[in-house]
Amino acid sequence: MTEDVDFKKMMRLKLDYINGIPFLQFICKNWEKIWNFQARSDDLLICTYPKAGTTWIQEIVDLIQNDGDIKRCQRAPCHDRVPFIELMTPLSFKSGVEQASEMPSPRVLKSHIPIQLLPPSFWEHNCKVIYVARNAKDNLVSYFHFGRMNQGMPDPGTWPEFFETFLAGEVSWGPWHDHVKGWWEAREHHRILYLFYEDMKENPAREIRKVMQFLEKDLDEKILEKIAHHSSFQTMKENPMANFSTMPSFIFDQSISPFMRKGTVGDWKTHFTVAQNERFNEDYKKKMAGTSLTFRTEL
């Protein structure tokens, strides 16, 4: 199969719906396989809304589980180390379900699925979940740039167009507000460690400690410092096993926008107009009413 043929098949997939939630069409076509995914009791699931620090937490977890062994963590690109369970493409790549089923235990798996659509086997096996949430404004900006470079996603259009699409929740994996709230409420009933992107930026060592505790790993301070360094944005940006540079450019066109772009808190200020900010805040107030969940949009 040539890159040309693949590229034509890949070009800008459309969205379809599962129980009212938009997903890429190919995920919807294969939904039964995803829904029937068989979790194992020792699986660890990393779940996030797209562009909320997924790759970052994957790298932290891998470093912790391998006691800070850098070489071991560079054994393969992150998308091979951590199967993306709902990944289904029209290309010849293995699906996330296939990749995970071939992997020996204990597995670390990744998903962006909102809580109400998570395959039931994860709850049946009482699996541990690490959820990372990022403030909506920065998350929106990051998702916009990701949509520009990821040729397998719907075309995000202009910034003002994507701003409206995001507010309407008409993006793949659905509305940000429902996603973060759903997982927040579930943490009281399941083994879920709920982390915030902004906390991770502010004090990486403190948040890495929380992950170590959750994974029942007791590593000394020296290893912790090593993990903090090797999972820092700058180090990961230069690490081909973490920065998605191994992904073919006809899928991830990093000449448009790098996969690891800025990794900061507050970049929304360089994108939002005053009018957009007012509109966003008003919409946010309505959608987040009645939740104890709070975010910081600057540090």
From TrEMBL:
The chain positions of domain Sulfotransferase read 42-291
InterPro entries in the record: P-loop_NTPase, Sulfotransferase_dom
Protein encoded by which gene: LOC115474635
Primary subcellular site in the record, as a coarse category: cytoplasm
Give the protein family.
Belongs to the sulfotransferase 1 family.
Lineage at the top is:
Eukaryota, Metazoa, Chordata, Craniata, Vertebrata
Q: Which SUPFAM superfamilies match?
A: P-loop containing nucleoside triphosphate hydrolases
**Keyword Lyase set for record:** no
Q: Which Enzyme Commission number(s) are listed? A: 2.8.2.-
Any single Pfam family the record assigns to this protein: Sulfotransfer_1
Locate the coiled-coil region(s) and give their ranges.
none
Q: What is this protein called?
A: Sulfotransferase
Q: Which organism is it from?
A: Microcaecilia unicolor
Q: Where in the cell is it found?
A: Cytoplasm
Under Gene Ontology molecular function, one entry of this record is:
sulfotransferase activity
